Structure formats: C-alpha cells, structure tokens
Amino acid sequence: MAEPTNIPLDRIDIRILAELQHDGRLTITELADRVGLSASPCLRRVRLLEERGVISGYVAVVDQNRVGLEVNVFASIRLERQREEELERFNTAVMQWPEVMDCYLMTGTRDYLIRIVVGSLGEYERFIKDKLSRLDGVASIESSFALSRIKHTTVVPIREAASTTPPAAAQAGATKRGQR
Question: What digits encode the pLDDT tens for the residues 54-74?
Fold first, then answer.
C-alpha cells in the first residue's frame, strides 16, 4: 500500500472541501458564492482537488436504519498467522462482502477490526456461518454489538489536519497560482 501524500491546501481549498462535505449537490455557482470566488476559478479548484485525489468521489449517504439495516456489529478478528498471504486472503474476501462497511488492519492482540451492518441477529449469524468462519486462516472472532450510535459523520476534520505546509509557503503557492 502506498503512503498517503499530504496535499498542501490553502484557506479557499479548505472552505471548498468543508462546503462540499456538508452538501455535495451544490452547483458550482452556489459553491463559488459560499467560498467567495467566481464560478470559473472555483470549478478549476474543484477539478484540481479531484485530480489530486483529495476529493475521491461523490455519494448519497443512506440512513441504514430507514432501509432496515439496524444492527451494527464490530468484530475483532485474529488470524492464525500474520503472513502476507493470509493478510491478502482476508483483505480480498472482505472487499467482496457488502455487509462489511469498514475494515482496519490493527496493532495489538487482534489483526482486524471490521464493522458489519445487517438487519437482524439472524443475518449476522448467517454472515458468520456462511462467510467469516469459512475463510481459511481465521483463528478467532470476537463480536460486539452497538446499542446505539452516539455520533456518526462523513465529514473529515480538515481544519485540524489540513496541511503541514507553513503559512508562508502556502501563501507563496497561492500567489504563484494567481490569487482567486
């Protein structure tokens, strides 16, 4: 896996990203008005953010409860061995299972933490029996069921993690691009 590249972001880039994270259906004209640009420079910036991979896509956020998927399960998985072949086998399988919403390779006593979304305990049991427990190399599965969701967001806190570029360097880059 390639290391993520920290893309320098200026104040306007951060404002564009904040607005789009709250409403990805904004027109370029609406977005430009909100961030204090005209439409053409705003569109250029959005396209550049897309080309650089800062904006990786646009989606509709579905309320899982309203579509009958009310059960969130967090499963800690330990593999028999932590060799590359076993890790890749697990990664490939998880990518094919639509019930798995998130999967993280972890440090500590467990190898993976996954979040599974299903409609009932019976569906989770079928997921365990038909998929997870049948995967070669899985040594143990520990499940925890969420009782209620306290916070959920898709908004990345860009202001805190925006850029490691010093302000003077960011300003020089903005001047170089032609301040918009």
Answer: 999 999 999 999 999 999 999
134: tokens are 């049948």
Distance CA(120)–CA(68), nearest Å, equals 9
CATH number of the domain to which 84 belongs: 3.30.70.920
Residues 46 and 88 occupy one common structural domain: no
Q: Are 39 and 29 in contact (CB under 8 A)?
A: yes
Cβ atoms of residues 118 and 97 within 8 Å: no
Count the neighbouring beta carbons within 10 Å of the beta carbon of residue 24: 14
Residue 76: enclosing H or E segment and its boundaries?
strand 71-79
pTM of the predicted model, to two decimals? 0.79
